[in-house]
Amino acid sequence: MPSFDIVSELDMHEVTNAVDQANREIQQRYDFKGVSASFELQDDTVIMTAEVDFQLQQMLDVLRSRLTARKLDVKCMEPQDPDLSGVKATQKVLLKQGLDQAMCKKITKLVKESKLKVQTQIQGEKVRVTGKKRDDLQSVMALLREADIDLPLQYNNFRD
Q1: What residues are paired with 118 via a beta bridge?
Q2: Per-residue pLDDT of the chain (160 residues; tens, 9 = 90+)
Q3: Range list of H helices, 47-124
Q4: Buried b / exposed e across 65-90, counting CB within 10 Å, b at 16+?
Q5: Interior CA angle at 132 toward 131 and 136, to 5°?
Q6: What whole-number distance in Å separates Cα of residue 48 and Cα of residue 21?
Q7: Which domains does the chain have, with CATH numbers?
Q8: How would you class 63 by CB atoms within 10 Å of its CB: exposed for 0-12, middle for 13-18, buried for 19 or more?
Q9: How does DSSP classify residue 51?
Q10: Nearest-angstrom CA–CA distance, 28 and 25
């Protein structure tokens, strides 16, 4: 029976490249001359450091544009509240990947409500969809692309 997996993953190599490009861009920008501002990637978190809150907002826009240029979906970004302390402002941006149980259940519910002849199965941080026809599986993919899900989804492990 044909099947595929629904996952939410980030290519961390591309994220590293995007953060490096963002660092280079703020070093070149005129409004950041003489300012100690930087991006730092630690695991699934980007830490932005600047002198004032306004610069953090500009840096967040730069990071969004760099992620988009590297073909990464900006829905994976979850900016935290900025931490303002004296002469330095920092802000963490969490990069979400993987489907939690609530999101898996939401996807399963969407597929079941569509009345397509497929079965869904939650397997950890992914949802496996199986059906008798390849067309039904492609209909599920189209349904999920149209749905309002606040995470970037990928479809992999397609078996025929």
Answers
A1: 131
A2: 888 998 888 889 999 999 999 999 999 988 888 888 889 999 889 999 998 888 889 999 999 999 999 998 888 889 999 998 878 999 999 998 888 888 889 899 998 988 888 999 988 888 999 989 888 888 888 998 888 888 888 888 888 7
A3: 53-69, 101-113
A4: ebbeebebeeebbebeebeeeeeebe
A5: 60
A6: 14
A7: 3-8+98-159 (3.30.70.860), 12-95 (3.30.70.990)
A8: buried
A9: S
A10: 5
Which amino acid belongs to residue 135?
A: D
Q: What share of the chain is helix, strand, coil (3-state, %, to 5)?
A: 40, 30, 30
